[in-house]
Amino acid sequence: DVQLVESGGASVQAGGSLTLSCAASGPLYHSYTMGWFRQAPGKEREGVASIDGDGHTGYASSVKGRFTVSRDNARQTLNLQMNGLNSDDTAMYYCAAGAFYTDYQHPSDFKYWGQGTQVTVS
User: Fold this and answer.
1) Which residues lie closer than 8 Å to 13 by C-beta, 6 or more apart?
2) How high is the pLDDT of residue 27?
3) Are 70 and 81 in contact (CB under 8 A)?
4) Helices (H), the chain
5) What average pLDDT does the structure give for the chain?
6) In the list 16, 101, 103, 109, which could disulfide-bond 50, CB 3.0-4.6 Å?
7) What's the confidence (pLDDT) of residue 64?
8) Which residues of the chain, if any, have pLDDT below 70?
9) Which of 42, 52, 36, 17 is nearest to 104 (CA)?
10) How far apart are CA 49 and CA 73, in angstroms?
């Protein structure tokens, strides 16, 4: 089975940058769409960004222009470069995979999920 492990979460000041990483183990098809999602306390989980097997990306309007998603199929890793962080970005961030022909707007399509990494912006 596929396991996803996120890393890179931290506490940063507003305006700062972070890079989150997600390492996958197991049979991860390169054609899977992979995505980042986040959930703040008291709020519903929301999609942040996704990238499909062809490298096509999608971003939530709240992060577009500030966040960049990328993947390395050879290393089975997914990254999220986050710039210009603000307090609204404070959340637990989750990596997800195991979906086809979908994007960050449809979290229920994703089969595999990591445990999350905390990002706090103050």
Assistant:
1) 121, 122
2) 85
3) yes
4) none
5) 95
6) 103
7) 97
8) none
9) 36
10) 17
